């Protein structure tokens, strides 16, 4: 899907970026002449973070972008993800109103890699993306994005590597105590009855270091951050399943819609060449309250016994708990008796009539996640030439989620549905009981649904739970030998080992349908004991929702009433086919040489190296347990072994060789040209590595005489432990103009080739049945297609502080970032319920996470006492990954933009007051599928406001 209507906007945007950079360059060059004789000005806050970014980019050994502050918690953002979004080419996916999964240069989170202090971070999901919310910005003092690889960096990011930095207290060298409290006002939360919409964030930290009697140094830092915040949502949604139809109930009859050459819309030809429409199995309006409690602690100890030895111990802990209380008004027969349909040219319905039950659903969802990280680093300058660094670390995440679900469905009625423009919710213009007499049989449905008795057709309760545990233990040894040569200056080498254990237990569930004889009494009991007033005011006002309230109930009370004395508890750790129990051991060694020379009269520095990576995979999964029987005719059958579960252990190993070269040419004192060429890799997400194998039943009637013949094509995989890393070849060219300490212009072009396409394939495997192994075809294995794709892009960045302008304009500064990325990678539409001939006509999407256009800008002003920053972020549409299934429809997130404001006033040297506003324009989050205007989700979460008081000494 591609919005051609946005192209003029991008031409204007690009022109504006170039013009702004040109103006910035002119002003900066003029200022440079003044700065050469000016005194050095100490900066703090926003200007300090940008000055540090310029310095780090200039001095790095490869192509990087960074934002940092010397002080812990001094980054002026509410989350680490929002800090990252200020870096050129870095974008986030919105979750609960916040930036979450991060993409670099248009490549989605599954092609990136993240570390904290250079160590891999565990994940609480089935993929390798990092929940940056577990690292509060109050406790992080820097982020570095490596956009090019060098041999001594951990492998794992085709798009780049994100490294979070925590404080080293001796290096910081000062005593510092800080405490802050922020009040959070959420207008959407204030709509709730008996809720003022106020939440709170708190943080405190203390850092100190000492000179020891023996000449050594010792320091420590400890910080805490906590939050009690809300993130309510008002949304329109459709089910994850969808299909194409061309039937018209008024003409063709039938109940569920269908797709056939025999339908009138086919016009006597092939159905795919006639008119048809896409339809979801259900659609619903959702009112949701969500509250979250977060606690995090970061600590560090640094000890330098002497000038040659530096020992650092750091740890991180966080706990995140949140609940969602969902109330849905749902039309759950979205495919039934569809008629009077009109569509746009791509098949997205504009209007449609159908018959469905209107239902009141409730779901109470709880998720809790614990993260623990610990690292020890020893840096020893053994001699003047030889340095040794050792690092050991642990990272662990545990997550569980429960869902208590209940539903009450009404009798079937007809409805007229009208699509929207993507800003408003789609409309229900009429509800009636007689298809042939809409006006005469119309009901006042908006009034009827205010009474829970309306939902009297049937009811059901369900309980769900999943558990995930993910741990990484790692060790690293790095050696650095300084040379006294005219070309090579350092030789580096080292090795690293990590063991990644991932237990992802499939979500288990139990359902309890209310017997028909008990439905009336159960509904009456819920109405009597659990009914609640509509929880909020003004639902859907910003989206012009057709419905603003409906009868609902205390979600947990309704669930408990339906369940009664029955037990719906489940144990997800009981072996099941969807479990992924993975161990991934990675051993790598590298060698790298650093060099420094001259090309003409220009200094040329860089490094060249190679990294060898060995990966060993072991995956355990459930296998259907059978005994093999034979009848008198010699025909075999499989008999299930009662109560028996067999575990299948599949192993694989592979290696990768990753060469790299980085060059830096000093064209002048201010102008720097960098080039990088390297091989990179990313590992597939863990949920693709399942070893479970489902063996279909076999009877004697099928007349198989051998087990191998009975198995061939009768075994289905739940994953593929034989997957290997995705490799890439990468080329980067970056030109940076460092005009002064506060001003930089930078332009970069990059080109990458990679294999990242997945498909469901058939391959041979050894499968064990009744103690014997057979080499047979296994279907449904996720497989990386050997089809190279490429991405090409460019970046433009400008940073400038107008220190030479007359007061008060000397406090002004700007940051402008733009990234363009384009790829020939294709993600074909794969929805299993769409007819193959129609699926082939749907334009494929691109790679997950790729936005062709990304733009961010900040205009700030600050002096000794006051600072203000206005931020704008824009991201063009992108494909959002759905999960491990290769048979789901592509979800396209619409263009997104947001405006944020930050204000701060320093009352005195100890106290500062802050104000922050997020998503000032209340931009909705919108998803489409298959065709433009076929909306999967339209969500509003509102703006958020923070007022804080900070104390520092």
From TrEMBL:
Query: Which residues, if any, are the signal sequence?
Result: 1-30
Where do the TonB-dependent receptor plug domain residues begin and end? 57-153
Residue span, TonB-dependent receptor-like beta-barrel domain: 421-920
Question: SUPFAM superfamilies, from UniProt?
Answer: Porins (SSF56935)
Name the Gene3D superfamilies for this protein.
TonB-dependent receptor, beta-barrel domain, TonB-dependent receptor, plug domain
Which compartments does it reside in? Cell outer membrane
Q: Which InterPro entries match?
A: Beta-barrel_TonB, Beta-barrel_TonB_sf, Plug_dom, Plug_dom_sf, TonB_rcpt_bac
Indicate the family of this protein. Answer: Belongs to the TonB-dependent receptor family.
What is this protein's name? TonB-dependent receptor
